[in-house]
Inverse folding.
């Protein structure tokens, strides 16, 4: 196990435990994350502001 896996595991625990809104799909490889979010852009922005991690959102 490496540092990225340890950190991301803790990050995921915090991410999913503090809200009842979850992505439809969520995939992670080491420190890259891909997911499908259907709860609106504002909910995603508010959620990512609480996390101590730089996130890049791409919408389509």
């Amino acid at each position: 196990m490496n540092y990225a896996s340890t950190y991301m595991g803790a990050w995921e625990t915090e991410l999913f435990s503090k809200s009842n809104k979850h992505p439809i799909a969520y995939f992670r490889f080491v420190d890259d994350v891909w997911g499908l979010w259907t709860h609106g852009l504002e909910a995603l922005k508010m959620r990512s502001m609480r996390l101590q991690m730089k996130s890049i959102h791409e919408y389509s």
Remarks:
- The first helix runs from residue 3 to 17.
- The longest strand covers residues 25-29.
- The chain has two helices and two strands.
